[in-house]
Amino acid sequence: MGQQRIGSERAVVQTADVFALSQIQERIINCVCCARLVAHRQHTADQKVRRFRSESYWGKPVPSFGDPLARLLIVGLAPAAHGANRTGRAFTGDRSGDWLYEALHRFGFANQPDSFHRQDGLTLHDCYIMQVIRCAPPGNRPDRQEIANCQSYFLDELRLLKNVQAVIPLGRLAFDAYLRAYQQIGNTLTKPRPRFEHGTLTRLPTGHAFLPSYHPSQQNTQTGRLTRVMFHQVFATARTLLDGNCGEGLESTNRSHGCSTAPQRGARSRSQGSRDKPLGR
Ligand code: SF4
After folding, report:
1. Whole-model pTM?
2. What is the pLDDT of residues 141-198, one digit of tens each?
């Protein structure tokens, strides 16, 4: 079986794993498991909005995007009705994507700061973006059953992303979904369980750096709950960890859960943090 070794500090990834990841994307794109979401994504694609009236909407589940060998994993919630549900690529064509890709580019995880459509030349380096559910939900709120339906894709991908060393969940729902999946693939969380606070860094028992962020939704960015400085700080921390001793250090650092590192300068402290609202965009 073929293997790819990317630097001494990165895990060996089977070529078969990369192929399996691509196969999962095919399954996702063709999924019709959630009747409500299938109807909504198609209705949205048919009706459109005035500013995108001339465009042809994707109107299908949105696959994951990025580098299968990535060390940084971003977890989003769901496609936006007129963003990724229109363009067919995660966080592409909406304001949340403007924030996310600008930050990824700034810290060396993307080749450009903008994302307009699937053929705009955007590539990710050492970064992979997954979403908790892959179809745009009405009101940006998926229900429990829909999240459960999409969980199998999430778990399958996590098992194949063997190089991941740092995880940034965007928003409370992504935070909870990742920790749930983390246990479902065979890991154990010790107490106290991580709390959702923007800008904190926690080492999970497996050594993964866990860096929750508020979601860059307009509801957060326009109200000042999430500022550029706050958002950048999360990615700066990830960059520092991955560029430093994080790679091999993850194998040897204190694995006890709760080995939290204080937020770096500019990040929100625990006392400053307010709880993120569960929201989609
Ligand atoms: S949300 Fe997930 S499980 Fe439900 S229809 Fe879309 S891809 Fe399938």
Report:
1. 0.85
2. 999 999 999 999 999 999 999 999 999 999 999 999 999 999 999 999 988 899 999 9
262 in a domain, yes or no?
no
Choice from 42, 131, 133, 156 to test ligand 1 binding pocket (greatest atom count within 8 A of CB) = 133
CA distance 31 to 156: 15
Q: Which of 143, 153, 93 is nearest to 122 (CA)?
A: 93
For residue 206, the enclosing domain spans 12-252
- Of ligand 1's listed atoms, the one at least distance from the Cα of 146 is 4
Task: Compute the distance between CA of residue 78 and CA of residue 49 in angstroms, rounded to an integer.
Answer: 19
Query: What CATH code is carried by the domain that includes residue 28?
Result: 3.40.470.10
Please write the tens of the pLDDT for every residue from 78-130: 999 999 999 999 999 999 999 999 999 999 999 999 999 999 999 999 999 99
Number of domains in the chain: 1
Residue 167 CB less than 6 A away from ligand 1: no
Q: How far is CA 140 from CA 75, 82, 134, 149, in A?
A: 16, 11, 12, 16
Whether ligand 1 lies within 6 angstroms of the CB of 147 is answered as: no
78 lines ligand 1 (CB under 6 A): no
Closest CA to 84 of 68, 65, 70: 65
